[in-house]
Amino acid sequence: MGIDEIFRKFIDKEIKFRYIEKHIQRVIQIGGNKMRKKMVFLFANLFLLAACSAGPTGGGNETSGSGAAGGNEAGETIKIGLNLELSGPVAGYGTQEQEGVELAVEKINAEGGILGKQVELITKDNKSETSEAATAAANLATNDQVVAIIGPATSGATKATIPNVTKAQVPVISPSATDDSVTMNGDQVQEFLFRSCFQDSFQGVILAKYAQEQLGAEKAIILADNSSDYAKGLTKAFKEEYQGEIVLEENFTKGDKDFQAILTKVKKADFDVLYIPGYYEEAGLIIKQARELGIEQPIIGADGFGDEKMVQLAGAENVSNVFYTGHFSTLAPSNDTVEPFIAAFKEKYGKEPSTFNALAYDAMFMIKQAIEKENAADSASITKGLATLKDFVGVTGNITMDAQHNPEKSLVVVGFTDGKESSAEVINP
């Protein structure tokens, strides 16, 4: 164990021997390698002794059972953390969610804040990496003392934050982490994890039914990303629900660019619908290459398609007879909050809001309702308020949180013609 790692473990245990650290480092610098080895050995023994004797601190960073006091308190402002993919492969999701939250906070603060306090956003870029997401969550919860966190956007990154936010007892609400296991650990609910989106199993079931009932598809091909929990969950749910024949099942890996060999197999098969559980980066390229090979059958996917870059990668002329499950569509407003949201978004950003903009906007307002319901803006109260959220009227639908911290809400199947949304069918749970 190196000296830097030992220091980190001391900090993590909240054993703040700053005076000792300072002088040991000075001795190490003077004494060279021999003294360094001695000091590392001394520090290791001090760490083991402290780790065995340290009890719970007053900082609320030890994991506790349900209902235990913990987390952070609001100060002069209500600090909300953003842990989002603002760079890296799936930055398209994170940047859209940042836009949605910032619009929500602007509206909330202009209307007087929450319980008379302004909302302050503290933003971290997790770089589309699970390790960075875990670090960002720890920093937001322990260093920045936020009372709640919005994000990450993806399921893998969100799951990576669970140990740190559970230890800190700070609630997280992801706008778009749809993997069923995000809010569940086996049969146990993850106490501090919530989402404003529906989960993969719901999407997979709806897509299977849509393929059969609306598209009349008796034979399906599945072309799935085998490198993500997101795609695996969607594939499993679809296969369990689909009553037709799955004539071919192929896989790709995140980052693949050339799908010609797989699509040649697909073209030779007798099928009615091509199901692609995956994200927009690969989906866009698959759609482009499929259409260029002359594959004309309907292509369906889940909310991972929901980024304008999907159309850019595929080419608008290739994105027809394409359908995906979304949480929001301007063609199918769910309630009276949608039109004002669209107008405000257009005014601020000069474009139509996306699914991810809308989900993040709702996530912030769900936190607001949780605070107002509990009449308190500390982490414990927000956790309780989110767990018991009922009849929330959001732009992505009316939401009541179920026992597994999943929102009960409607779903929209969006259809594309020439790269533009041309249809939207609302499906209730």
How would you name the CATH homologous superfamily of the largest domain?
Response regulator
Number of strands: 17
**Strands of the largest sheet, in order across it?**
9-8-10-11-12-16-17
- Stated plainly, the CATH topology of the largest domain is called Rossmann fold
C-alpha geometry: globular
Query: Helix tally?
Result: 13
Summarize the amount of helix as a percent range: 40-55%
How would a crystallographer describe the biggest sheet? 7 strands, mixed
Low-confidence sequence ranges: 1-24, 26-30, 40-68
CATH class of the largest domain: Alpha Beta
How many structural domains?
A: 3
Proportion of β residues? 15-25%
Beginning-to-end CA distance, first to last residue? 52 Å
Rg, Å, rounded: 24 Å
Q: What is the name of the CATH architecture of the largest domain?
A: 3-Layer(aba) Sandwich
Average pLDDT level: 86
Structural class: alpha/beta
Order of helices and strands: HHEHEHEHEEEEHEHEHEHEHEHHHEEEEE
Secondary structure layout:
Layout: H1 3-12, H2 18-53, E1 78-84, H3 91-110, E2 119-125, H4 130-143, E3 148-150, H5 155-168, E4 172-174, E5 184-185, E6 188-189, E7 193-195, H6 200-213, E8 219-225, H7 229-241, E9 245-252, H8 260-268, E10 273-275, H9 280-292, E11 299-301, H10 308-314, E12 322-326, H11 338-349, H12 355-374, H13 379-387, E13 392-394, E14 397-401, E15 407-408, E16 411-417, E17 420-427
Parallel strand pairs: 1-2, 1-3, 3-4, 4-7, 8-9, 8-10, 10-11, 11-12
Antiparallel strand pairs: 5-6, 12-16, 13-14, 14-15, 16-17
Helix pairs in contact: 1-2, 3-12, 4-5, 6-7, 9-10, 12-13
